[in-house]
Each structure stands twice: as structure tokens, then as C-alpha cells.
Specification:
By secondary structure, the chain is an alpha+beta fold. The protein folds into two domains: 84 residues, no CATH class; 236 residues, BirA Bifunctional Protein, domain 2 (2-Layer Sandwich). 38% of the residues lie in helices and 21% in strands. Strands 1-5-6-10-9-8-7 form a seven-stranded mixed β-sheet, sandwiched between helices. Bound molecules: 3,4-dihydroxyphenylalanine. The site of 3,4-dihydroxyphenylalanine has 11 residues, from strand 9 and strand 10.
Length: 341
């Protein structure tokens, strides 16, 4: 038994180490492989006298168990070292592509409209969505108790009736006229709020672009040409426009502008309610009283203004029949819009 040197072998096994998988495999082959040291011991067993065989067999089995236990413990120590060093990474793998976001259809239409006006000298002026009663109504010729206030169901702040969510982008006209000397040529895109029942056709949040031009000798003809240019740029060369007389407290005279229906080209369809025309904006010559409210001399200066909705043209452009889709943030809807602007 002594010449098999089992104690030495056990010590050797116990002192073995492996710091990676290939050293571990080397260890396994050396001690537990088919031609390994433990197998060799079992081969030797046959050569031993029958009397001593049983005791030696037990001892060899003990060596084998120790070798196997050591294998397990070396395995465990390698994998725990690997864990602490983080997962094994293949740095040559291609990266995971990040999905590119798309612009919201309302932003696309707003940007398109804004750029058209910028090309003819308008600058963008954005204002707050929380407004004062003065800017939203009174300065725009809608004093308290004016019936026109009813046309715009308003969200007020409970604790202060002078503060409200703007019902249109027109208050930005007041802010700019109060702080700027004419000539003024601005557009004011933004979000507006009205306390309306939400349906496929109307929402309590929507978007407008306000336009304002104040200078000496501004006439309705200027307004007409500007809006005609806008309509052609926005909706295509053959777009027709028409003005219908209307009423807004802050403009005199006032008008609403229709464009020929984009869908049926004027022949009549459900979108234009078979009239061939779709209303897209309100406009007019700035009422002298509004200029005076902002300390602009109405004898010297005149101006025009317009208020253009964004949702309706967007619905026409993309054939969207439910305004609520713009506000639901459903990825399946939003992913369909690709635009560079
Ligand atoms: N503020 C009006 C509205 O929301 C739209 C409007 C009409 C704006 C005529 C104007 C204008 O500047 O001149 O209904």
C-alpha cells in the first residue's frame, strides 16, 4: 500500500489549483480522466493480494472522492470569480440598434406652417399657457360680461378668477404689442384649452398658430395675399381660398377663411360636408381699440391678425378621423409619421 503513495497523492490533489477553465480541465484529465491517476490506481488494485485488496480499494475510493470533491470546489471558485468580474462579453458583437423616435404629427404640421411664415418675414413668439384675464379677454375687446366669452368655455383657476388657461393664442398678440414698437410681424404657435366635451371632433386641448402684423398702411389686401400664399405652400398650388364675413371682438372687419377641400378637390365629400370647402382660420383687421389697449397709436398704425388651428389641417393632411388620437400617445399611431422637420 505504501508504495502507491496514496497520502502524497491526496496532498497533491488538495493543493491543486485552477484559475480558469483550461486549468480546470487539465486537473480533471490528470486525476479523473480515463488515463488519469485515479484510474491508474484502480488498475493497480488487480495486482494486489486478495487479502489486502478490500482495504486498498476503500482507500482508493477515498482518493477518488477527494479528487471529485476538489474538482467541484475548483469549478465553483472559477464561476464565482467570473461572476464578480461581470458577465463574459463578446466585444465583437454588433450593438443593439436604438429605435429612432418619430415626430408627433401635430409637431410636423406646426413646423411646416411655422416655416412657411418664417420664409416671408414672420418671427416666432411663444407665450405662456397660463394667462391673465386681461391678456386672454379684456385687452382683446372682450370685457367681463361680453357675450363672446361664452364662445370659449374657459378653465379658470379656482382661487383666482383673473388667472386661466388660455383659450386661444391671441393673448400673445397683447403681450407682444404691449412690449414692442411696430412694425410687428409675428406668429405664435401653442397649445390652448377649452372646457369642451371630448369627442372625435373636439378636444379640451388643441393647438393654434396666431399671426399678427402691425405697421403703417397694413390693409386687408395684405392679409389676403399672405394667407393665399400660405394656403398654396401648405396645401398645394391648386388650393383655392375664400373669405366669409364673420365676427371676432378683436378684429374689424372679421372673416373666416376656407380652403377648397383637399380630399374631393371641391366636388363635395363627407369631410367637407359636401360643400367643397373646409374652414381653417379666423382673421381680420386688428380692432383699433385693441391697438389702443396696448398703447399703439391707432391713427398711425393698422394691423391684421389671424388664428389658425393645427389639428384640423393635420387631420385633413393625414386623413385622421378622430382628434383624440393626437393625445393618446399610442405608439402604433405615432410610429406612422416620418418627417425631417
Ligand atoms: N382667437 C380666435 C379663436 O380662437 C381665432 C382668431 C380669429 C384669431 C380672428 C385671430 C383673429 O387673430 O383675427 O377662435
Amino acid at each position: 500500500m505504501a508504495d502507491l503513495n496514496l497520502e502524497n497523492l491526496i496532498q497533491e490533489i488538495e493543493e491543486s489549483s485552477a484559475s480558469n477553465h483550461s486549468e480546470l480541465e487539465q486537473y480533471r484529465i490528470e486525476y479523473l480522466g480515463k488515463k488519469g491517476k485515479v484510474k491508474a490506481l484502480f488498475a493497480k488494485l488487480k495486482e494486489v493480494d486478495e487479502g489486502a485488496r478490500k482495504a486498498l480499494g476503500a482507500k482508493i475510493n477515498e482518493v477518488k472522492n477527494k479528487a471529485e470533491a476538489k474538482l467541484e470546489s475548483l469549478k465553483a471558485s472559477i464561476s464565482s470569480e467570473k461572476k464578480s468580474g461581470g458577465p463574459e462579453q463578446d466585444l465583437s458583437l454588433p450593438g443593439v440598434p436604438l429605435a429612432l423616435g418619430t415626430r408627433h404629427p401635430i409637431s410636423i404640421v406646426r413646423n411646416t406652417m411655422t416655416q412657411i411664415f418664417q420664409r416671408i418675414g414672420f418671427t416666432v413668439s411663444e407665450g405662456p399657457e397660463i394667462e391673465t384675464d386681461w391678456n386672454n379677454f379684456t385687452a382683446l375687446n372682450m370685457p367681463e360680461d361680453h357675450p363672446a366669452r361664452d364662445m370659449q368655455d374657459t378653465f379658470f383657476i379656482q382661487t383666482d378668477p383673473d388667472i386661466l388657461l388660455r383659450t386661444h393664442t391671441s393673448p400673445q398678440q397683447i403681450r407682444v404689442m404691449e412690449s414692442t414698437e411696430p412694425p410687428i410681424r409675428i406668429i405664435c404657435p401653442g397649445r390652448v384649452y377649452r372646457n369642451e366635451t371630448i369627442s372625435a371632433r373636439s378636444h379640451c386641448i388643441f393647438h393654434q398658430i396666431e399671426g399678427l402684423y402691425v405697421d403703417e398702411n397694413v390693409s386687408f389686401a395684405d392679409l389676403r395675399q399672405t394667407l393665399y400664399y400660405f394656403a398654396k405652400e401648405m396645401f398645394g398650388e391648386d388650393t383655392q381660398i375664400r373669405f366669409r364675413p364673420s365676427y371676432f371682438p378683436f378684429t374689424e372687419p372679421s372673416a373666416e377663411m376656407d380652403i377648397s377641400c383637399l380630399i374631393c378637390k371641391g366636388d363635395g365629400c363627407p369631410v367637407c360636408k359636401h360643400s367643397g370647402w373646409v374652414e381653417i382660420l379666423g382673421c381680420g383687421m386688428v380692432d383699433p381699440a385693441v391697438l389702443e389697449n396696448c398703447n399703439i397709436d391707432s391713427e398711425k398704425y393698422t394691423g391684421y391678425a389671424f388664428g389658425l388651428g393645427i389639428e384640423r389641417p393635420a387631420m385633413l393632411k393625414y386623413r385622421i378621423d378622430d382628434i383624440r388620437l393626437f393625445f393618446e400617445n399610442d405608439m402604433r399611431f405615432l410610429e406612422q409619421f416620418q418627417s425631417a422637420i
